[in-house]
Amino acid sequence: MKDRPTTNSPLSGRTLLIGLVVVVAALFLIPRLFNTNTTTPIQPTSQPQSDVDSQTEFDPNVTLGQLVSAGNVDRDGCPTDARTSFETNEAIFVVAPGSDMPSGTNVFARLYRDGDPIEDAPEIVADRDYTNSCVYFTFEPDGSAFEPGQYEAEFIINGNPADTIQFSVR
Known about the structure:
- The chain is mostly beta strands.
- The chain has a domain at 55-169: Immunoglobulins (Immunoglobulin-like).
- It contains one helix and nine strands, in the order αβββββββββ.
- Strands 2, 4, 5, 6, 8 and 9 form a six-stranded mixed beta sheet that branches.
- A hairpin with a 2-residue loop joins β8 (149-157) and β9 (160-169).
- The longest helix is centred in the N-terminal third of the chain and has 21 residues, at 13-33.
């Protein structure tokens, strides 16, 4: 047998270009195929907002108990004097007993008189997961008494209307 002579020819420019394209494509496509992209999407910060339409969707993990209006609450924030009629100089508690709220849930209550919004309670943010808890807000006559009329309190969770309770002030 006769040995064939070997040639040591350098790679052609075309072969180098194809190899470079394959390497670059692999660098970009492999992380996406195996979901190993290490970038983290930026999450918006939670800012209290009173504009209901501009916030996030209602969290399906939130369970809001049946709303109650009351003249007082116990040390756990649960209603002790449920009623639907109040005097002009009384504090009004609106309570959602038996509620479940995961950590980070934003909640506030909006008070309406005769269909017009008159006050937003301060927003609260769940600092941990809450189960079977009483969530309440207090509306008090500041400086002057409540005007007589038909009132409604609306719970707003993560920027979305959740439930309402109606009562009167006489």
